[in-house]
Amino acid sequence: MPVKKSNAPQKKKAVAAVAKRGRAARPRALDPATIHEVFRRFREANPEPKGELEYVNAFTLLVAVVLSAQATDTGVNKATRALFAAADTPEKMVALGEDRVRDMIKTIGLFRTKAKNVVALSEKLIAEFGSAVPRSREELETLPGVGRKTANVVLNIAFGEETIAVDTHLFRVSNRLPLALGKTPLDVELGLIKAIPVEFRQHAHHWLILHGRYVCKALRPECERCVVHDLCRWPEKRI
Ligand code: SF4
User: Fold this and answer.
1) pLDDT tens string 201-211
2) Local confidence band at 18 (pLDDT 50, 70, 90 cut-offs)
3) For the chain, N or C: smaller number of CB within 10 Å?
């Protein structure tokens, strides 16, 4: 009976070749002048970018961002229109109660946990912050359901701080162009803070999220209508 020759060495070689190609293909981050040009073009195309979550004050913004984890802004807005009409302050949210809140947001993913967090964070705002949304990251992160990304969004939109909230869209765009390379959202956030010129930091978070959501999409990026396609170093760009 003939002895079957192992193809393990060939497989090993193929894996090594793919790994080598991957390493070679990973571009360096853009230089400062090119990063400036990227944001100059984003600003030219959309001078006053806005987020898409609906809210009426800092409290409802905080609640909307907590509800938006692993959900679309459109889906959150559909549920919060009625919720915020009934409760636009921590006191009214607590009075509404967890069962009613849960019922009003049941179209949003993870609604049970989110309802619990929304009522608990409202109670904490009343008990510890005079019913106001705190302005520091450390304090925001003590609230139930609030992590670094949520705190960054609230600090940026409600208080005009130059924070960068790294969501899945922003993470992808930053690594593709690349503006700041990183394996975790925190790596990317800290890299972007260093890389983005001061004049663009206030709006950078919105420009990058909107670019990732509508143009530099995960599966089929629309590179042909991308305003920075000639500056992008992503080896798989479609142009
Ligand atoms: S060229 Fe394509 S991959 Fe590069 S940033 Fe634009 S949309 Fe994204």
Assistant:
1) 999 999 999 99
2) very low
3) N
For the chain, where are the alpha helices, taking DSSP H only? 8-25, 32-45, 58-67, 73-86, 90-96, 98-104, 111-128, 137-140, 148-159, 168-176, 185-195, 198-214
Q: Which domains does the chain have, with CATH numbers?
A: 30-49+163-225 (1.10.1670.10), 58-159 (1.10.340.30)
Where does ligand 1 bind, in terms of residues with CB under 6 Å?
176-177, 215-216, 221, 223, 226, 228-229, 232, 234, 237
Backbone angles phi, psi at 136, to 5 degrees: -110, 150
pTM summary value: 0.86
Q: DSSP secondary-structure letter at 89?
A: S
